[in-house]
What does this fold into?
Amino acid sequence: MSRRSGLFVGTGLAALLTIGGCGGSGTETEVQGPAKVTDVSSAPGTQVPAGEPSSTTPGKAVTPNGSIDPKGVVDVVKNEVKGGEASKGPSRIDHLYDFPDLKLVKDEPLEVEAPMGFPGLTSFIPATNNLTKGKVELGKQLYFDPRISKNGTVSCATCHDPAKGWTDNMPTSVGIMGQVGSRNAPTVLNTVYGRTMFWDGRAPSLEAQCQGPPQNKIEMGDQSYEEIVDRLRAIPGYKEQFQKVFGTNVTLDGIAKAIASFERVTAISGNSAYDKYVFNTEDENHNKALTESQKRGMVLFGLKLNEDDDFKTDVVLKKANCTACHSGFNFTDERFHNLGVGWVEEQGKFKDPGRWGVSATGAKDPSELGAFKTPTCRDINRTGPYMHDGSEPTLEAVVEYYDKGGLKNPQLDKDMKPLNLTAQEKTDLVEFLKALTGAPVEVALPTLPPGPDGKTVDPKAALEVPKKETAQFDHQFLVR
It folds into this structure.
């Protein structure tokens, strides 16, 4: 452990007292992501810097005409910020953070090589959470351990299963006692490169993100952080591991850092057919990594073919205009756009306010209403259904939605226009998206430490959809 970790908590301990469910309201500043993610230079498929401003222009101002339901917005924000803490009271500081005894630490640094064509991971690892072997191993156990949930049935992997593209392949997620949420589970893949987390970007880091679901009332239950920590402290194996990894007892700080570390080095998608085509130039057959259909789709998407590729096509470059948002090596600009998804024309409002709902009072911009974060296109054929509400079941359906220009509304992104794609062009575009599928990430289920009674749990059981049980909850939102 470095001294910087101690300095961070010394200056940010008060902030820990107010961090709420699912990463809070998006205003925490304890761990900030990189200011900018730039492209790999000269790569045909990465011509637009991923952190550059998008071409989105602000929408028109919206007067209070019923298009926004203030109560609905407040409910979403309130319950996500406070979660279980609201009803159980604030957790004690020593359950949130414990100053380390470095003499207890028995761990070693871990170095991970980035996929071909990707920037190195070093600059994307927070200085407050250096990578170690023990931390990643501990994070893997916690990620798959359903005992973090109130009734021991839901784990992080329930909604973000590695075998399902690190999602649950459901339109909207199902949480504890079978409660159904209102948003689709975004993939964990390549979130090491992310600047914000959740569809509305309210969490500034993976560490902040993973603090939310455990106390979200319909994700993992109405519980405080203190209850979760006490439950894990009763497990001898976890107490021992936390001492070796952090030099502390079990704490929320350690839980967040361990899970985030596991996600950063494990959930990485790369070495796809597209990457082999663009970056594996030492292979004389690299131009054959993509089919002719995928190459046409690549041009439609907005990317140029390799200069040494003899294949010629008359399709219009960037006709599908995908790179307006899906740019850079990770195919996302890390920004927020209104595609019209969730707009109810008859009511003149959105079902979900999106980014606008978590923006700070005094800084709200009408153009953010109905805007959601651009997801990565990596492994996209494994992560359906699509859109923040899971409303598009297939890639073909997604392409059709974009082809018609989305749903018109006052804040619609200016780049959302009818594309007039032919049937063949739609097929080619889908085929190119499939070429972004990386090498499979095989994650073996961990053996979880026994509880105080000597019995352990099977992490596989939590990979099933939670069964619906009789329960009463204060709110209906599960927002990601």
